[in-house]
Design goal:
Shape of chain A: globular
Order of helices and strands of chain C: HHHHHHHHHHH
CATH superfamily of the largest domain in chain C: MetI-like
Strand content of chain C: under 5%
Number of strands of chain A: 12
Distance between the termini of chain A: 37 Å
Strand order of the largest sheet of chain A: 6-7-8-3-9-10-12-11
Helix content of chain A: 25-40%
Order of helices and strands of chain A: EEEHEEHEHHHHHEHEHEEHHHEEH
Chains: A alpha/beta, B alpha/beta, C mainly alpha
Radius of gyration of chain A: 21 Å
Shape of chain C: elongated
Largest interface: A-B, 58 and 60 residues
Largest sheet of chain C: none
Number of strands of chain C: 0
Oligomer: heterotrimer
């Protein structure tokens, strides 16, 4: 039940651009168990999506390049696979849900055809079987009147319905791992709640691992089991969700939690993390967060902090801060 | 407080404390749908905004929330005269500005400025920051004498927290948050009294959002501004607003002071909306009641009869299809003073707490900013 | 206030508002306040130097959050920087520069007279002093090819200018104002698109008796403007929807300000690209029309005329045909390559 499904070890990804080399991912390490939801939290440019693309094997190379690291899926290093083997894993064993459902669906094919394709390609199903399967899937993601809408085209569905179709497509072959990259960011709140609920329910039902990539601390609190917070291409903190919200052990996590306005209270002035996220072409030496950190000391400007085991305030958590203890307590 | 009469332009029950600087009455914007190539025949209308009333007091922030397609951005555009209303009035200090043109319109525009959502398309990429912020002075030369403009622009840059030396840079050399500051500086240049901000932080990263919101907060006091703050993020709206209007399909369905709306909502749509917002507190997820609405928002070209929310409402009854509910204090709360007694356009309004009431202490020691 | 301050105490790189604001103002023409000398007391140049030193010391994209680190760069200067590095641009640019020079001063490289012919030397091949040989009329092919550049370049440039101005003004206004004017203009461009160029040229130009290049240019403008007009209209409509145009309107900007200050600079790039590429095609169109006998007429010296007259001797004296045809091909190619390079540099999607 709690077998490790996916383990990313010390992953490094670079992008070669006209202006230089951007280090998008600098040693990311995280793992997902079967049936677990890991939320990868980060702002734009933190490397959260690039890591996911590397795991899926859909990174654009060039300009992207995985320079080192391991991606262990069910104990096997995917980076050592041939492209052909990799393709078999993709779709059948792990699937991805993207933010923009409209551009992820082919506008000239009916949704039934796109859903059915999964079965004809991977399972060798006949057209008739594929159509029946497509209807079944659409039912499963609760699209009303699935049988009559199976021939409709993506533009005939609303945003929320399209995202359901994306989920259906990801679930089609009952993969062991789903990566959802900002699945509800483009949706309205009321629809967002519907889609998130659906995703969580199906995940429980199928006991899948789920990597939820998001910038929304609220969504994370609602569905995640564990959180990995990313900053400038590194994991800065990773912990069970309850512990991290109660007592963050990294100043960046702490700053993020304090900087969001809350629905249930009329705040004073918001805490704001000073400055801007770093340029990935030129990440500050030492701890990448040091120029914005209120606790930064000399050692932070010179030494890259390792992932310290956080022994207080909960188990099974790490923090990449030299002063995690001070952060926890103050 | 006068009781609101059907159709009549009456005092708002939730009128702002001071003298309203802006009064909006019966604001309507319909976009005609036409058919035919040579002879355009109108076959219908997209009712983007379909009868909106509100007041904005001097120095106050009115938040307007709603989902995409509810017409909130169209309201913003009408307030700054980028769109002409199909019907209704926008009274600035008592005078209707919807019919103005030429010199009179230009004069009013000085006082009502806008901050746009997307910092990447709202700044002309071919102009320097100095030219962008200085443009208002070229259009309204009476505001600042020519020789003084450069200094004014640099002052503005400093006010919004940017280095005044970057006056000769181009927008693409700045990050999103910095660009939004430039947009705010441009909005401030003419010293307006009202700023209409259409989703000013939704394109920004979380850590930068807080900086920009704090900046807007500070500028409000410093320049005695009134804000109309339009957003889909309910938490941000609560943070910044004194009063809130909730829009659904072209109309305001509920309006009141922020605590009235957030802690004592009476309209089912507001309740559903609030209950759907993810709260950044994992402890809350077990004991939170969530109202999951069915289906999607109907098309504004084909609005349901009666109450426009009835197609998704769990309380909908026959009356809702027949009778349009008015935006007024519901009968059951009318004679009690209390937070539930605020305008709500529902036949079956009742109080329901959907936002968890025991706020969890924010982690760590509260800090009052970083600088 | 949460506004970031520099993480380490550095010399005042960011003047306070009450202080005179740094080097940019030193030539600003503003009456100086008291203490008009810059904050460091060492004048603008020193300030600039300290600032640079500072920005060198700090990492790029640095954390102080007060602004971008590099020098001011407009999109045009970025495009120019790209172009300078692009070998395609350099080669085509040099070819075009050479063409312009020889069309202005053909005598620099050709000392002869293109109209001086000697029938006795008809169809003779290459010989010392006359590297390209002689054509059917006994005229020096080298001299005529050099002199022919002038007509080709003039026709190309004038026709392109005319097309670009007429097309972008009409298309731009239609795109900006929309409505009935736009509908009428779109129908008119459709009509012009329906006219086959060569056939139209045969019909229209055959009734013209003037032997100057202007009827040909006029004809090209007449048939060419709808193409640019469409591009300009589309480009203006796209640009018009940008928030910065809305922002200007909300400020109370007049139509002319929005058009000139906001829309034109942002909408002009596609027009420039298409016009540059079209320039090459106009040069070849001139040759085509002259070849067909309705374009330029002797004694004008033009590649088209030469190709036309040499075509009857193609078996006996192919050189008389190949040299002007080659010159034409190189010229057209150069302009099309230039257009490609310019498009790459201006294409916002690559930015």
């Amino acid at each position: 039940m709690t077998d490790v499904l996916l383990e990313v070890r010390d992953l490094h990804v670079e992008f070669r651009t006209r202006d230089g080399v951007a280090k998008a991912v600098n040693g990311v390490t995280y793992s997902v168990d079967e049936g677990e939801t890991l939320a990868v939290l980060g702002e734009s440019g933190s490397g959260k999506s690039v890591t996911a693309q590397a795991v899926m094997g859909i990174l654009d190379t060039p300009p992207g390049k995985i320079t080192s690291g391991e991606i262990l899926f069910k104990g096997q290093d995917l980076l050592k696979f041939k492209e052909e083997e990799r393709r078999k894993v993709r779709g059948a064993q792990m699937a991805m849900i993207f933010q923009d459902a409209l551009s992820s669906l082919n506008p000239v094919l009916s949704v039934g055809a796109q859903l059915g394709e999964m079965f004809t390609v991977h399972r060798g199903a006949s057209r008739k079987e594929a159509k029946a399967k497509a209807i079944e899937l659409m039912d499963r993601v609760r699209i009303p009147g699935a049988a009559s809408r199976v021939g409709d085209y993506p533009h005939q569905f609303s945003g929320g319905m399209r995202q359901r179709i994306m989920i259906a497509m990801a679930l089609a072959l009952e993969p062991a791992l789903i990566i959802a990259d900002e699945p509800t960011t483009a949706l309205d709140v009321t629809v967002q709640a519907q889609v998130m609920d659906l995703l969580a329910e199906l995940q429980r039902e199928l006991n899948m691992g789920l990597i939820l990539i998001t910038h929304d601390l609220g969504v994370v609190a609602d569905v995640a089991d564990r959180i990995a917070v990313m900053y400038a291409g590194r994991i800065v903190e990773s912990a069970p969700v309850h512990d991290i919200y109660k007592a963050p052990a990294h100043p960046y996590t702490k700053g993020l939690l304090e900087s969001i306005p809350r629905l249930d209270q009329k705040g004073r002035e918001l805490y704001a993390i000073k400055g801007l996220p770093p340029n990935l072409m030129n990440i500050p030496p030492g701890c990448a967060f040091n120029p914005r950190c209120p606790m930064a000391q000399d050692v932070c400007r010179t030494d890259v902090p390792p992932l310290y085991e956080v022994t207080e305030a909960g188990a099974d958590r790490v923090s990449a801060c030299h002063f995690w203890r001070e952060c926890l307590n103050g | 407080m006068a009781e609101r009469k059907n159709g009549a332009v009456a005092e708002h029950l939730n009128a702002p404390a001071g003298e309203p600087i802006l009064q909006v009455r019966g604001l309507v914007k319909h976009y005609p749908l036409t058919q035919g190539i040579l002879f355009r025949k109108q076959v219908g209308a997209v009712k983007a905004v379909d009868g909106v009333d509100f007041d904005l007091g001097a120095g106050e922030t009115l938040g307007i929330v709603g989902e995409s397609g509810c017409g909130k951005s169209t309201v913003a555009k009408m307030l700054v005269n980028l769109e002409r209303p199909t019907a209704g009035e926008i009274r600035y200090k008592g005078d209707d500005i919807t019919k103005l043109s030429g010199r009179a319109l230009k004069a009013v525009r000085r006082n009502i400025q806008m901050v746009f959502q997307d910092p990447y398309t709202s700044l002309n990429p071919r102009m320097t920051v100095g030219d962008i912020i200085g443009e208002p002075y070229e259009i309204h030369p009476e505001v600042a004498p020519k020789g003084d403009r450069r200094r004014q622009v640099q002052d503005l840059l400093d006010v919004v927290g940017l280095n005044p030396e970057y006056i000769n840079r181009y927008p693409h050399q700045f990050s999103g948050g910095q660009r939004q500051r430039i947009g705010i500086a441009r909005g401030l240049a003419l010293r307006p009294e009202i700023i209409v901000a259409d989703e000013p932080v939704s394109a920004l990263d979380v850590s930068v959002q807080a900086q920009v919101i704090n900046l807007m907060d500070r500028l409000q006091t410093e320049f005695a501004l009134s804000y109309v703050f339009i957003a889909h993020d309910l938490s941000i709206v609560r943070h910044i607003s004194d009063r809130v209007g909730v829009m659904y399909l072209g109309r305001i369905v509920e309006t009141g002071r922020d605590a009235e709306i957030y802690d004592h909502p009476t309209h089912p749509y507001t309740q559903a909306l609030l209950s759907a917002v993810p709260v950044p507190d994992p402890e809350a997820r077990e004991h939170r009641e969530r109202i999951i609405l069915f289906g999607d928002v109907p098309s504004p070209a084909n609005i349901p009869s009666g109450c426009r929310f009835r197609t998704r409402c769990w309380k909908a009854a026959e009356r809702c299809a027949m009778e349009v509910p008015l935006l007024a204090v519901p009968a059951e709360f009318r004679y009690e003073a209390g937070p539930a007694a605020h305008d709500s356009a529902c036949h079956f309004a009742e109080e329901k707490q959907v936002v968890p009431q025991e706020p969890v202490e924010p982690p760590g020691e509260p800090t009052d900013g970083s600088a | 206030m949460p506004e970031p301050t520099p993480p380490e105490p550095t010399p005042p790189e960011r003047p306070l508002p009450s202080m005179p604001p740094g080097p940019h103002l030193s030539g600003g023409g503003r009456a100086p306040e008291d203490g008009a000398i810059a904050a460091t007391g060492m004048g603008g140049a020193m300030d600039l130097a300290t600032q640079e030193a500072d920005s060198l010391r700090k990492p790029l994209g640095g954390p102080d959050g007060s602004g971008p680190q590099d020098k001011p760069r407009s999109l045009w200067s970025d495009a120019w920087r790209d172009l300078r590095r692009n070998p395609v641009f350099i080669i085509s640019g040099l070819v075009i520069l050479f063409l312009i020079v020889i069309s202005l001063w053909p005598s620099v490289i050709a000392s002869g007279n293109p109209l001086k012919c000697d029938l006795a030397k008809s169809q003779e091949g290459s010989q010392p002093g006359h590297p390209f040989g002689y054509n059917g009329q006994g005229c020096d092919v080298y001299t005529r090819t050099v002199y022919g550049a002038r007509v080709s370049v003039t026709v190309g440039v004038c026709a392109t200018l005319g097309v670009a101005i007429l097309g972008s003004v009409l298309g731009g206004l239609a795109g900006f104002f929309g409505g009935a004017w736009d509908a009428v203009l779109s129908r008119i461009t459709d009509i012009f698109f329906a006219i086959p160029v060569v056939l139209g040229g045969l019909v229209l130009l055959s009734v013209v008796t003037s032997s100057t290049i202007w009827p040909v240019i006029g004809f090209m403008v007449l048939l060419g403007w709808p193409q640019i007009s469409r591009i300009a209209r589309g480009s203006v409509i796209t640009t018009k929807q940008n928030d910065y145009v809305q922002a200007a309107r909300a400020l109370g900007a007049s139509n002319s300000r929005m058009l000139l200050r906001h829309i034109t600079p942002n909408a002009i790039a596609p027009v420039i690209v298409v016009a540059t590429i079209a320039l090459g095609t106009y040069i070849s169109l001139e040759a085509t029309l002259s070849f067909l006998g309705v374009g330029l007429k002797p004694p004008t010296v033009s590649w088209g005329i030469d190709i036309s007259s040499a075509s009857q001797y193609i078996r006996t004296a192919p050189h008389a045909l190949l040299w002007p045809a080659g010159a034409l091909a190189v010229t057209v190619l150069a302009f099309i390559m230039l257009g490609d390079a310019v498009r790459d540099a201006l294409d916002p999607k690559l930015r």
